[in-house]
């Protein structure tokens, strides 16, 4: 069997190297596009979850501040609105506040018994990290909403003193001034 000289055996290696460069040139942009889509998809998911969480946090804070306030007609007070907006912004520190709109309202015109329903909605214009997906989502908005019942009229025991079933074991905070972390937005029942 004849043995080929070394120069005849190495003739195909140059063509193989050329194929590798072409394959890289075709697949690399696709892989980068896929990686960018994964990163942007994660960032968009984070924004959507943050908006939903911020609406729930705002509703919880608004319900705490409005409890016992006796607002059985009209819109939420400025103190409730300010507390809700502050809670929404605190619950979503990674989001741009300039792209966010917060709406605070009561679902019904007056109290139903002692209760009223507080509705908080947060609208956020989504923002992508890469320019590819950025063009697709530039005008997309996500709206997160939360609804909570608020006890607007304090129960009788909260207005007259500790309930009888507490007996002599009323908690130490009963009748004290609210803690400093409540700030000016301390609920009326405290």
**DSSP helix count?**
5
Q: Could you list the spans in which at least 5 consecutive residues all have pLDDT below 50?
A: none
Distance from N terminus to C terminus (CA atoms, Å) equals 101 Å
Task: Report on the biggest sheet.
Answer: 3 strands, antiparallel
**Secondary-structure-derived class:** alpha+beta
Name the strands of the widest sheet in spatial order.
1-2-3
Number of strands: 3
The fraction of residues in strands falls at 15-25%
**Proportion in helices:** 40-55%
SSE string, helices as H and strands as E: HHHEEHEH
Mean pLDDT: 82
Radius of gyration: 30 Å
Instruction: Give the overall form.
Output: elongated
Features:
single chain; 190 residues; alpha+beta; three-stranded antiparallel beta sheet; 5 helices; 15% strand
Question: Could you please describe the fold and organization of this structure?
Answer:
This protein has five helices and three strands. It has 190 residues and is of the alpha+beta class. Strands 1-2-3 form a three-stranded antiparallel β-sheet, with helices on one face. A hairpin with an 8-residue loop joins strand 1 and strand 2 (115-125). Helix 2 (13-66) runs antiparallel to helix 3. The termini are far apart.
